[in-house]
């Protein structure tokens, strides 16, 4: 069992993330989590394969499944499995560290596995809209061993108008992307192979 007290985000890493969020509003980090934890999450995801269900768009009364918009299958994460519990602890330490530095009022974190079959994609969208409190920070952690950079499947972040491409992140194993949910329309491009990740959101309380 990993000693998770030695696996929490360092003060230096928290400073780096906070500076990026206060500046451009997003950051790409390669291997910020321990490699053993990443492998544990990959192993756990394999055991969850039968529980994955097609994702939908919208919430509550507006919820619908539409593969012309998004084509991933998901399974929400809950503490229990050792790797999942360690991951959620790491993210909670990140939440506390960001709150101390930026006073964002992040109060919880929700996340799910997301698996895209070859050819599946997620059209350009926002995770949150101004004036509708909820998701404040979005995160994507990639769980793709030995990813082929020619396979596609990138996450593309756009400017606020959704017109200018700001960054294109290949889904390399262990890469973590963090960005302000309200500020960046983004999309997931189709890939030539299965693509898997954990998508998550730090939330704020409604006013």
Q: Which structural class matches the secondary elements?
A: alpha+beta
Helix content: 10-25%
What is the CA-atom radius of gyration, in angstroms?
16 Å
Distance between the termini: 41 Å
By CATH, the architecture is named Sandwich
Low-confidence stretches: 1-5, 60-64
Mean pLDDT: 90
CATH topology-level name: Jelly Rolls
Order of helices and strands: HEHEEHEEEEEEEE
Q: Give the percentage of residues in beta strands.
A: 25-35%
How many runs of DSSP E, i.e. beta strands?
11
Q: If you had to describe this structure to a student in words, what would you say it looks like?
A:
This protein has 207 residues and is an alpha+beta fold. It has a single domain, classed as Jelly Rolls, CATH 2.60.120. The chain is 22% helix and 30% strand. The strands form two sheets. Strands 1-9-6-11-4-3-2 form a seven-stranded antiparallel beta sheet, with helices on one face. A four-stranded antiparallel beta sheet has the order 5-10-7-8, with no helix packed on it. The longest helix has 21 residues. It starts with 10 loop residues before the first helix and ends with a strand. The N terminus is likely disordered.
């Amino acid at each position: 069992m990993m000693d998770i007290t030695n696996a929490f985000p360092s003060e230096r890493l928290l400073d780096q993330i906070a500076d990026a969020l206060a500046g451009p509003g997003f950051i790409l980090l390669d291997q910020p989590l321990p490699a053993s934890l990443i492998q544990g999450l990959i192993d756990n995801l394999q055991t969850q394969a039968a529980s994955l269900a097609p994702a939908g768009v919208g919430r509550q009364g507006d919820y619908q499944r539409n593969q012309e918009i998004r084509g991933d299958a998901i399974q929400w994460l809950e503490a229990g499995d050792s790797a999942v519990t360690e991951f959620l602890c790491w993210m909670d330490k990140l939440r506390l560290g960001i709150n101390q530095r930026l006073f964002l009022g992040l109060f919880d974190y929700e996340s799910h596995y997301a698996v895209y079959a070859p050819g599946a994609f997620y059209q350009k969208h926002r995770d949150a809209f101004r004036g509708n409190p909820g998701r404040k920070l979005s995160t994507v952690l990639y769980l793709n061993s030995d990813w082929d950079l020619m396979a596609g499947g990138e996450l593309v972040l756009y400017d606020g108008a959704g017109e200018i491409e700001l960054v294109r992140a290949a889904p390399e194993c262990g890469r973590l992307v963090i960005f302000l949910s309200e500020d960046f329309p983004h999309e997931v491009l189709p890939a030539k192979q299965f693509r898997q990740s954990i998508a998550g959101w730090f939330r704020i309380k409604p006013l």
